[in-house]
Amino acid sequence: MKEIILASSNKAKMRDLQEIMEGMDIRIIPLSDTGFTQEIEENGSTFAENAAIKAETVRDALGKPVLADDSGLEIDYLDKQPGIYSARFLGRETPYSEKNRIILEKLRDALEEERSARFVCAMALAMPGQQTIITQATMEGQIAYESKGENGFGYDPIFFLPEYGMTSAEISPAEKNAISHRGKALRMMKEEILKRI
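Request: output the structure for the sequence above.
Response:
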């Protein structure tokens, strides 16, 4: 069985990846199981650059295929902030409930047509001796007027999906996987992996 290291120890990302890769002869290993402890400086200017930096740093250290992602929320009313700084927005230690409250406050006077936003996910597969492969996808929506839902994490409770009439924290995990930025980018990456492994 082939092994791919996921350059993350996030349980939600691990679960999403395992669901999409189900049926493939591939074992996904979380970064926490590899002994890798190096601090990775995500100094790229795009989601794709940051994903590649993570994947290539771990690949170079461990000499194995590595999958990494960089994702975040772009809010048009805030000039696409928090963008690539989504995890670091207002400080890494600030709980998302507080980050979401502050974003809702910033958009308090925004009209419905000004509340457009999207989740972006870039995935990078770095394999020894090969060029890094990038896939990228988005999930379009709006910033809600209030925080709702318990299913998601991060900014999900304030991300409204007009076609569902609810936030991405209110839809089921299966529904979210079908339409999410990460789900789309992962399915595109699955096609790339099938060609190479």
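Residues 90 and 99 are 7 Å apart (CA to CA).
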